[in-house]
Design goal:
Layout lengths: L1 H30 L1 H39 L2 H8 L3 H8 L3 H4 L3 E6 L4 E4 L14 H7 L4 E5 L7 E9 L5 E10 L3 H11 L2 E6 L2 E2 L9 H4 L6 H9 L4 E7 L2 E11 L5 E10 H33 L7 H12 L14 H31 L14 H18 E2 L4 E2 L1 H18 L3 E8 L2 H8 L1 H18 L6 E6 L2 E7 L3 H16 L15 E8 L7 H18 L4 E3 L6
Parallel strand pairs: 16-17
Antiparallel strand pairs: 1-2, 1-5, 3-4, 4-5, 6-7, 6-10, 8-9, 9-10, 11-12, 13-15, 13-16, 14-15
Helix pairs in contact: 1-10, 2-10, 3-4, 11-12, 12-13, 15-16, 16-17
């Protein structure tokens, strides 16, 4: 009788609450379905509008950053001075993705096009009428939304290019276009909306979506939109009929240097689609909630059961666990209060065992010099997940250089020992090189430590990219020095790799507002040995360091190979 009453006291109140919740939730969900859908549509559309504003601001910033950085580049200045179109194309063609720019136009000091990098065969015309070009001729850097000759709708920045004697020798203009099919596709992907671009009051004939290309060609703005957006220069938001369908619409005017709305960006989401998505989401949430409530009732019934097992058994197991015994056998089949306690203890033991397993895996990977391992912290919850994240962070901190995101010296020492032993067994050549940034102290003194950090990160990234084989390894050795380990590599192969690293880094431009800081060079010392019982790791490092010293003595920006031990 007590058992039945006890179960009823536990089960009955939650069941009553659940039933009430279901009835109330269903009633209010039906009452608020329409208003909630409207709110959901409005919030989604507002997010897309905000994303468009951020996209336009980012495009301005990218355009401005590109011309400011490149207008003072010595290679650019030399190519513009010599009117070397091939050299200009060579310099600028790889830079579209770097600055997220769609076009570069290089002009002479009077505004005549020397090269359109995006259209190499289209040049020789004058763009002196564009405001960004006029400002550049006057010595100013300016950014505008403008209509151009080859690119109709874009944001573009113009900057003067000065010779070393301060004379204006050319103009650099770059920007992000909005009038191509690729640009429309990028905006659609970025904004998750239908997008159209209007030049004046006429839609540019690019596909707003694949099904309406012919219908969209020649589409014009309605008089109401023209009055608000083109004439009034205001954003317009509301429902409108576009291409025969009712859209939640947003029209944004693009104002040129004369503060005239020469183009318009349209964002639209079909109302039928939005309503269908909103209603689907609402009913999905209601269904999930109902299922969750029903599952809760079922689980609650399973949990409530009689207390039959001696509590002392559980107490003994908990005491063993508290004293460090995590291999205890815990039965989890009981469905009463004791069973729940058993389950909790089982989960705790399982969590501790998994944590220890992860820690052992970390230690094993660190012993191999590996730093790119994944700690399965997602499988933990609560304070255990925080602990797992802390362990992972501590492991990464101890084995990875946090400035350059490559392995640190400790990781390298572990990998070197393993590779040395393997090469010794296999009688295989092992090559080591130390890479040192030339005159790095002077670089820091002249440009500051923050730019010095950028140089270190750039060199580290180049090394990581250039070291191709999975068995090879690079790490930060300390300060401005990096170290590279090449397994199963003879002296000839090692010098080829070293020279490739040296030349690639020498040719790498490091972004900086100061034109003097666009490049660094490195000196490399390397040594190759076939490990034997008479040789040692310390000897290999010492000979490599000696070779580096010889490279510096030779004048830097070169590679020197220790000749004492050759395979």
């Amino acid at each position: 009788m007590f058992r039945k009453s006890f179960r009823l006291k536990i089960i009955l109140p939650p069941v009553i609450v659940i039933v009430i919740l279901i009835v109330v939730l269903s009633f209010f969900s039906l009452q608020n379905l329409l208003s909630f859908s409207d709110l959901l549509i409005d919030e989604k559309f507002t997010a897309n509008v905000n994303s468009l504003d951020r996209y336009l601001e980012d495009s301005k910033a990218n355009s401005r950053a590109a011309v400011i950085s490149l207008a003072s580049n010595p290679d650019v200045i030399r190519a513009v001075r010599e009117r070397d179109r091939d050299e200009i194309l060579r310099i600028f063609t790889p830079l579209f993705d770097l600055y997220r720019i769609n076009f570069y136009t290089i002009l002479d000091n009077e505004g005549t096009v020397l090269v359109r990098v995006h259209e190499p065969d289209n040049y020789g015309d004058s763009l002196a009428y564009q405001q960004n070009i006029k400002d550049a001729i006057d010595g100013k850097v300016s950014t505008y939304f403008e209509e151009g000759t080859a690119v109709k709708v874009s944001v573009r920045t113009g900057a003067p290019v000065y010779d070393t004697d301060g004379a204006l020798i050319g103009i650099l203009s770059s920007g992000v276009r909005f009038d191509s099919e690729e640009a429309i596709a990028e905006l659609k992907k970025h904004l998750n909306s239908d997008v159209a671009i209007f030049l004046g009051d006429t839609m540019i004939p690019t596909a707003m979506n694949e099904d309406i290309v012919e219908t969209a060609a020649g589409q014009r703005l309605s008089p109401e939109i023209i009055e608000a957006v083109i004439d009034g220069k205001h954003e317009y938001r509301g429902n409108s009929v576009f291409l025969g369908e009712t859209y939640a619409s947003f029209y944004k005017p693009l104002l040129d240097a004369q503060d005239e709305a020469f183009a318009t960006i349209f964002l639209g989401m079909p109302l039928t689609k939005l309503m269908a998505e909103s209603n689907k989401l609402i009913w999905s949430e209601l269904t999930i909630g109902l299922i969750a409530l029903l599952v809760s009732i079922a689980l609650l019934s399973l949990i409530i059961s009689s207390i039959t097992k001696p509590i002392s058994m559980l107490a003994d197991k908990m005491n063993d666990f508290a004293n460090g015994d995590i291999d205890i056998d815990i039965a989890t089949r009981r469905e009463d209060e004791i069973g729940r306690l058993n389950l909790s203890l089982y989960k705790s033991v399982d969590t501790i065992q998994k944590l220890l397993g992860e820690i052992r895996s970390i230690i094993a990977e660190q012993a191999k010099g590996n730093v790119d391992y994944h700690f399965e912290s997602e499988s933990f919850s609560g304070i255990y997940r925080q602990l797992a994240d802390d362990i992972s962070e501590l492991a990464n901190f101890s084995m990875k250089d946090h400035l350059t995101e490559i392995p640190n010296r400790r990781s390298f020492d572990n990998r070197l020992e393993l590779t040395w032993n393997w090469a010794k067994r296999e009688k295989s050549p092992l090559s080591l090189m130390i890479v040192d940034i030339d005159k790095f102290k002077n670089y820091n003194d002249e440009f500051g430590h923050q730019q010095g950090d950028v140089a270190l990160q750039t060199v580290a990234g180049s090394l990581k990219h250039l070291i191709k084989r999975s068995s090879d390894y690079c790490a930060r050795w300390g300060g401005e020095e990096f170290i590279v380990l090449l397994s199963d590599t003879d002296a000839a192969g090692a010098i080829d790799v070293a020279e490739n690293i040296r030349s690639k880094i020498e040719g790498t431009i490091i972004p900086c507002s100061d034109a003097k800081a666009e490049r660094v060079t490195v000196s490399i010392g390397l040594c190759t040995q076939i490990p034997t019982s008479e040789t040692s790791i310390d000897s290999l490092i010492s000979k490599t360091d000696s070779a580096l010293y010889q490279a510096k003595e030779k004048g830097r920006n070169c590679c020197m190979q220790d000749m004492a031990v050759r395979p």
